[in-house]
Amino acid sequence: MSKNIIVITGATGTQGASVTHTFLAIPTWHVRCLTRNPSSPAAQDLAASGAEVMRADLSDLPSLHEGFKDATAIFLNTDFWGPYLSSRDSMLAYATEVLHGRNVAIAAAEVPTLRRLVYSTLPGMKTLSSGKYVHSYHWDAKADVAEILNAEPGLSGKVSFLVMGVYSNNPLFLPRVMSDCKRKKTLKFNIPGKRSLLLPFIAAGESTGTFVKALIDSPAGQWVLGSDSHLTMGEVVDVWRRVTGYEVATEEVDVQVMHERHNIPWEVLDAPQFIAEFGYIGSLKVMSPEQLGVETKSFERWLADRDWEEMIMKGEEELNGVSEKS
């Protein structure tokens, strides 16, 4: 009996790797990972784990036709931050991401064996705020790709959507390690807005695959929020205090001040403003993980399993990398 084939785009990324490892553990599935560089260490690790690794580029339709051949399911996660970091141009990164999504829609629509395409998306901030928050192109690009996939006749009855929550290691919501004159270490949160900011957190490297498997096993047309825990920033601070045993200080920082003080672009800072006013998903209708039958992992358990000091260091590097003066 032949196996089902799942094709995973962006397989060496956080979400794609999670989906890859989830399906490698299921004997009835063959895992095909698409990557621009099959010889990279990350791609070679996937191959060593048992995945088929193929070269494909979301800008290259012929490579997608080849990569999607005989696919039963496709996991799609388009990339904004790669084009953005190389250009510092939000509109160019938006256009690139939307083009990639359109190419996948065209290629996937021609796969007769395809039963399900799961797209990792985000709410359309500009539309859901009636044009109030217009700088978050990485949210709006994914929302527009979702519309393209929904409108493609050849994908009718085949597409579901995973509305990803905030990564639990998102550097905007991580503390910094501070030392006083006696070298006593404390943690300091600069909260963008208020401690009451409510966020749906997801351990993307661990949980994405579970959500994608559930969506593939469910009827098409589902929209589910990819979230392990809903916590206010005040609750996040309390979890960090319990897990680390450190003293934790907090400062509620106005986003305008954060923009001016830390050079964080509005591409990033529109999000906490939108969430504070409209909620993370606005008026978008989504299922909860519980409604989809997904078992989730608490934020506290996730943090307890981390090398959190290394995570903070990497978060600082990542945030510095997107700053407007980096």
Automatic annotation (TrEMBL):
Signal peptide: none
Annotated Pfam families: NmrA
Keyword NADP appears in the UniProt entry: yes
InterPro entries, A to Z: NAD(P)-bd_dom_sf (IPR036291), NmrA-like (IPR008030), NmrA-like_oxidored (IPR051164)
Residues in NmrA-like domain copies: 3-283
Keyword NADP listed: yes
Gene Ontology CC: one annotated term: nucleus
The entry's keywords: NADP
Family: Belongs to the NmrA-type oxidoreductase family.
Name this protein carries in UniProt: NmrA-like domain-containing protein
Species per Swiss-Prot/TrEMBL record: Penicillium desertorum
